[in-house]
Amino acid sequence: MDEIDRKSIAQTGLCISDFAVLEVLLHKGPLPVNTIGAKVLLTSGSISTAVDRLEERKLVRRAVDKTDRRVCQVHLTAPGGRLIKKAFAQHRRNLERAMSSLTPAEKDKAAALLVRLGRQAAEDFESETP
Prior knowledge:
The protein contains six helices and three strands; from the N terminus they run H-H-E-H-H-E-E-H-H. By secondary structure, it is mostly helical. The protein has two domains: 2-98, Arc Repressor Mutant, subunit A, CATH 1.10.10.10; 101-130. Strands 1-3-2 form a three-stranded antiparallel sheet. A hairpin with a 7-residue loop joins strand 2 (60-64) and strand 3. The radius of gyration is 16 Å and the shape is globular.
């Protein structure tokens, strides 16, 4: 599934990190740079580079947070929103097609197990990080 996921994202014309950043903004709304980095598992340097790259392409814009001027929020632009909506829809169709041999109950069970694994892995990682 990981290989199918990567190939599907590549078909959108975006690299994995750019897709991930745009997808988070699509589903969560504007967020601080460091919050996006944590959600998509990019270091502070890597998330800054990704946001710079997306900003250069005019897919996102940075804005100073109105309540805390030390924080920079990242927003989708109209072209960025259109691109990620189309790319995410295509990616979703690809993944649904890849899982089409599973029954709805099996898909629900697989999703629940993956969520559980992800939470446990995140907890383990956080407890081991100095």
